[in-house]
Write a structure and sequence with these properties.
Elements lengths: L8 H4 L29 H21 L3 H17 L7 H15 L21 H13 L24 H14 L4 H4 L2 H15 L13 H12 L3
Helix pairs in contact: 2-3, 3-4, 4-5, 6-8, 8-9
């Protein structure tokens, strides 16, 4: 099984890379989901989003890297696209997603720090955890290197793009991982859209250098997500 390898300068900015690993998923914006798309069911969407939010909280508590948290969240959205929430233990899936993300980044195991045992939820056995981990990693194509939107931010910014704007763009990117936007849009378009949104929020449109209109779909999706109750 091919794990994530270190990237070189030449392959860092790959406009064809997709966070979802499957180009055909990038078929429409969130606000136009069809009934055959499982996340068009808002109740189901909210259930999975709550799990993605727990992963964010767990990552903050255990000081996991943002990228590890984001990959774990992406695995969750990918997994529950194929599997039903009610069929699996939430604790086991969260542990497995964090463990899988750690492997993707070739970092230390997250198994012992992924969940707080004092939270009242029983920890998964090693056997059960391995099974869930296997289900998650098997759903990914390890021959396609995962890219992260943050890698592409410099492509769309000028020298006047401040650290505050950069942080805001990073926050928007982070928010895309607690919605299926991380699956639907290639990382390069997520970055472009996040930069444009950040500049717009700060009323500084002149500090960005958009390269296409393709990020408009991502921006519309994120506005749709932000407006969800």
């Amino acid at each position: 099984m091919q794990m994530l390898q270190s990237t070189s300068r030449e392959d860092t900015f790959d406009p064809n890379a997709t966070g979802s690993h499957e180009e055909f998923w990038v078929f429409s914006q969130v606000s136009q989901w069809g009934s055959n798309w499982v996340y068009s069911d808002y109740d189901y969407l909210r259930k999975v989003r709550s799990i993605a939010c727990i992963i964010r909280q767990t990552g903050l508590k255990n000081k996991h890297s943002p990228r590890m948290v984001h990959y774990a969240q992406m695995l969750i959205w990918r997994f529950y696209l194929k599997e039903k929430v009610e069929n699996y233990s939430e604790t086991e899936i969260i542990d497995a997603a964090l463990e899988s993300a750690a492997h993707l980044l070739e970092t230390h195991s997250a198994r012992d720090t992924s969940r707080d045992p004092s939270g009242g939820q029983a920890r998964a056995t090693n056997s059960d955890q391995f099974k869930q981990h296997f289900r998650l990693v098997r759903s990914l194509d390890f021959n396609i290197r995962i890219k992260h939107p943050s890698e592409y931010i410099p492509l769309f910014t000028s020298s006047q793009f401040t650290s505050r704007l950069y942080q805001l763009a990073e926050c928007i990117i982070s928010d895309s991982f607690i919605s299926p936007c991380c699956l639907l849009h290639p990382p390069i378009r997520v970055a472009e859209g996040a930069v444009i949104m950040a500049a717009g929020m700060m009323n500084q449109p002149g500090v960005v250098t958009p390269k296409s209109a393709k990020s408009i779909s991502f921006i519309k999706d994120m506005k749709f997500y932000y407006n969800l109750k």
